[in-house]
Each structure stands twice: as structure tokens, then as C-alpha cells.
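In the current project phase, we have settled on a layout for protein records. One protein thus recorded is set out beneath this paragraph:
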Amino acid sequence: MGSSSTDTIAIDPSQLTEGLCVWLDMKWLDHPFLTNRVMVKTAQDIAILQSLPLAGKLFYIPSRSTAEPLELGTTQPPALEAPDALTLERRKLAQARREKMRHVKDAAARAERAWENAASATREALVSLARSPRASGQQLSQLSRDTAAAIAQGPQALLHLLGTKEDHGPQFHALNVMTLCLLVGHKVGLSERELTDLAMAALAHDAGKAEIPQSILKNGHRKKHEEDHYRLHVKHSVQLARESNAFNSTAIAMIADHHEAADGSGWPQGKTDMSVGARILAMTNRYDRLCTPEGNGVPPLMPAEALAHMLRQEVSRYDPHLLRTLISLLGVYPPGTVVRLNDGTLALSVSPGEQVTAPRVLLYHPDAPETEPSMLDLSKETDLKVVEAIRPTELAPEVLRWLNPQKRLAYYFSVDSKPQG
């Protein structure tokens, strides 16, 4: 049985009554409800359930129910007698389910398409920056202007966790950091010009790592001389930006300061008087590296763990207002967090919601077709909410493979054409 609950009891459809929480051991597309767990609230719920082929597939969950099943064989007049009426109600439920998921799915698809275009341009520019600095600089400049304009002028920019990506080139970290930088920058009131400079710096802040041997980059436990060599990537990134003639002094200063800290504990200069853009870049760069470490042997943190680490152990390194802004932007369950809902369903947070505790999620439905992912905005639901975050190590192997949280940690944004209602 697909339920993760262990206290389920098989019942006959004739035992259904209001107040039962039941598990339907059937494929997601074979019933019209949002999840396989259903809280029976009305006579109509009973009638629709009894119209489904539930023999041997209906289970009662005592711990989640407020009533007990009726005695086996109890006669109940059907709430809706006409088969056509039941069919119509099932269709209405299924259509409502599709409509609830459509907006989240469409926004994610827009983000996916935009990311593919940006990733292609970013990878090409970063790979060729050393040998064709001016042409590559122009590519980065154009992408930065377009991205900043989209976020500055769009009524609502939504962050999305993207589908699994096979290639993990330099564009991944660059686009993750740029996306977070621009969303934070927009939220704290940066102008479109300032957002463009920030985007430029975010895309190129690690370009100089092309000059650092992979043996050092991938070493998660570097010795002092290796760490000293690693830190030269900042100098190399600044030099490449200057040679491209596409970065102004503001963007170059952000690149130079992307490892500095508000308390002076950063490097290479240990300065504390960075620009707002540099502080945003340093903060988002750190967050993404905590979630997706560069060095081998460094365990990745869950997104919520990364935020908690920054808040509890590194808070002096960041501008308090900017850190609060990042936390409010990502929500209590940042994209990439596996969560359990109050009906027991597992889900993956894929986008912050309108409420910090109610993200947009990908529901765990292994039998759902890829063309119809079960994505839902919990801020629009009255019955479903997150009750806890789940560490990936606590998941069954097949669930972990399906949700694949760590391999999904590439994200981008979409801009709504109109505000959400």
C-alpha cells in the first residue's frame, strides 16, 4: 500500500461516514481528489467515494479520524442516486484539481524555459570570458539588463525550484546567486540600474575560478597554501571583468567584495564598508554554497538548515535587514525542502507562497504522469498545511529518488502577467 501511515485498517465502502480520514490505495488519476488521503466531510463525499471501484482499496486511518466506521453492511441511502450526477460531481472535482494546479505548473514552466535560455548564454559567456572577454562581457551585460528589467517591471516575481538538471556547469551557481540577488535587491528597493549591476556581478563573481586547479576547487578540506591559492579566484574574477570592458566600477567592486563580511571577518581585505549590492551578493553566495557545496566531502545542508545556520552561527557576517529579507523571501520552508502535510502526504517545496508557512509544493504522487505534475499552492488551501520538514535521510529510497531534492537545487524566477487572486 502506498500510504506512509502504519495504523490503517481496511474497510468496506459501505462503512463510510462523515469524520473518517481514509486512504485510497489507487493511482492518482483514478480518483478526483487532491491526494490519496481524503477527509470525509459530507454525504456527497461519501457518495463520490462509493461510486469509485474501491473494493480492497479503501483504508481507514484512526489517528486522523474524528469518527469510527459504520458497522459492516450498514444500509445507507446514497447521497446522490443518479449515476450521471455522480459522474458529473467526479468530473467537477477533477477539473477543480486541475485548475488549482494549473497556475503553479504554468509559472514553473515559464521559469524552466527562461532558465534554459539564460543557462545557455551564461555558460557560453563564462567559458569564453578569458579568450573573448569583450564578446562574453556583452553577453553577460545583455542577460543582466533583460533579467533586471523583467524583475523591476513585473508586478510579481516568483522563485521556482527547477526540475532535475543533468549538467552542473558554472552556470548553475551563477544563475542561482543572480536569481536570489535580484529578488532580494528588488524587495529592498534597488533601482533597475542597480539591479543590472548586481546581476552582472552575480553572474561573473566566480569567473576567476577557471584559473584555479580543479584539485583545489573540489577539495573540501584545503590546507592553508591551497586555501590561499583558492582565494585568488576573486582577483582573477575582477581582472576578467575589467578586461571585458562591460562592467562598471560598481559591479567590479561587488565582485571584489563577494567574500567580505559585515563584521570584518571576510576576505580578501576584511573590510566592513561594502555596498548594499556586495552585501546581498556575499549573503546569497554563502546560502547557495551551504546548500550545494563546491568541495568534495562537505555535506550539503537542507535549505531551511542553511538559513538557520546563517541566522544562528554567522549572523554577525550579514546585514540584519538583508538577512531578514532573504528569510522572508524564501519562507519557513525554502524551495528544496521536503515537507509532510497534515494529511500525511509528502511534498517538496518548489516555490515560496504568499504566506511564509504555506509554500507551493510538488505532491508526492509516483504514479502521476510527468505531463501533469501534482503541484499545489498551499496558501490557497484551507484543509492542507505543512506540519513538519523532513530530512532527506529519513525518506524511503524510492521516495527520495522521486522527489530528488538535492538534484533539484537549481532555481529561477517567473514574472506573472497579472497579480495573483
Q: What stands out?
A: Residues 161 and 411 are 4 Å apart (CA to CA). The two ends are 38 Å apart (CA to CA). The longest strand covers residues 346-355.
